[in-house]
């Protein structure tokens, strides 16, 4: 997992120009590579502002396969929301579970989080199942939680709290974190 760089744009465009990937998002699918370039260019300012810290999920052979990151940080309560997408050729490959192990280790061990929240559209069965598979617990439904254009969408809210993560297989995955986190994302 690493921060995106300018020369990742073509690959991100390739993966996120697939409507199956962005179906449940407020953005996309990409129609021009400039949209991926703009997303990459915006990342440093968003990290500095404490808005979002997104990483590319990188396969040693295939290169970038998706994106995962932390947003909606509450320093006071020690929580953040995790969001992810994986390119369709890598669905079911284990990349998503590995990415969740990495982001959870970053959040709980390095940043001092107490809770990770995740949302899945009530109609996005695959995402709900994928979250439960890696140890997130379903908490309920938030109605009219996300706006996509003119439509409001209901989401299922999931959580992974520190004590559950510590006992989960995710915590057994060896993870090395390098670098200094942006101060707004330090929660502990
Ligand atoms: C959500 C996402 C990250 C999950 O990664 P993944 O590699 O597809 O997930 P996994 O294969 O590990 O797990 C998916 C699970 O859902 C199951 N599944 C597949 N389609 C399903 C459906 N329509 N309804 C319910 N479960 C479904 C799979 O069988 C699997 O469960 P199993 O391992 O018990 O068999 C990936 O599919 C993705 O990027 N989707 C598009 C973007 C997105 O929806 N992001 C999440 C936004 S909240």
From TrEMBL:
InterPro entries for this protein: Acyl_CoA_acyltransferase, GNAT_dom, Ribosomal_N-acetyltransferase
SUPFAM superfamilies xrefs: Acyl-CoA N-acyltransferases (Nat)
Residues annotated as domain N-acetyltransferase: 1-157
Pfam annotation, one family: Acetyltransf_3
One GO MF term attached to the UniProt entry: protein-N-terminal-alanine acetyltransferase activity
GO CC annotation, single: cytoplasm
PANTHER family linked to this entry: FAMILY ACETYLTRANSFERASE, PUTATIVE (AFU_ORTHOLOGUE AFUA_7G00850)-RELATED (PTHR43441:SF2), RIBOSOMAL-PROTEIN-SERINE ACETYLTRANSFERASE (PTHR43441)
Protein's recorded name: GNAT family N-acetyltransferase
Source organism of this protein record: Solirubrobacter phytolaccae
Organism phylogeny: Bacteria, Bacillati, Actinomycetota, Thermoleophilia, Solirubrobacterales
């Amino acid at each position: 997992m690493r921060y995106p760089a300018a020369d990742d744009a073509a690959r991100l465009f390739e993966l996120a120009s697939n409507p199956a990937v962005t179906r449940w998002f407020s953005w996309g699918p990409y129609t021009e590579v400039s949209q991926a370039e703009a997303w990459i260019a915006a990342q440093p300012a968003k990290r500095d502002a404490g808005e979002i810290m997104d990483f590319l999920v990188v396969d040693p052979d295939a290169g970038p396969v998706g994106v995962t990151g932390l947003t909606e940080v509450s320093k006071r309560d020690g929580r953040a929301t995790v969001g992810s997408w994986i390119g369709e050729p890598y669905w079911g490959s284990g990349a998503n579970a590995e990415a969740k192990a990495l982001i959870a280790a970053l959040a709980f061990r390095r940043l001092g989080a107490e809770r990770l929240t995740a949302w899945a559209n009530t109609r996005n069965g695959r995402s709900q199942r994928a979250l439960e598979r890696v140890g997130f617990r379903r908490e309920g439904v938030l109605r009219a939680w996300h706006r996509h254009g003119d439509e409001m969408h209901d989401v299922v809210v999931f959580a992974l709290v520190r004590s559950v993560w510590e006992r989960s297989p995710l915590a057994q995955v060896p993870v090395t974190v390098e670098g200094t986190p942006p101060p707004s994302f330090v929660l502990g």
